[in-house]
Amino acid sequence: MVKKKETSGSPDQDHPYRLLSLNAVKKKLRVGYNTIKKWVRYGHIDAIKIDGKYRVPKCKLDDFITRNRTLTSSDVISCEEDELKALAIISNLKKKM
Asked: What angle do CA 79, 85, 91 make, to 5 degrees?
């Protein structure tokens, strides 16, 4: 039996308790893997450890983005919004360190 790959529009993709790997988080935030690990270690991003690997619940990543957002929704309305969010988060965290 061949398993079908989930499509990006799958309801599971947006489930708030979906667990994301650190690689998935790094791609979403567009930062390096070591940066994500450091943010997890310092408690900036809530994560759980399963079988020795960190996993980030999607809702916790969304909380992290919201907490560290420095732009208002009226500042950016474009397809580049995710990139700008990530840059704002990085800038905000650098100020805190």
From this structure: 145
23: domain range?
Answer: 15-71+78-96
Domain count, the chain: 1
| Residue showing tokens 């990543």 | 61
pTM of structure: 0.58
Least reliable range by pLDDT among 11-20, 50-59, 78-87: 78-87
Cβ burial 34-44 (10 Å sphere, 16+ → b, else e): ebbbebbeeeb
CATH number of the domain residue 62 falls in: 1.10.1660
Q: How crowded is residue 84: how many other Cβ atoms within 10 Å of its Cβ?
A: 15
In a domain, 38, yes or no: yes
CA distance 12 to 97: 35
Under 8 Å between Cβ of 38 and 97: no
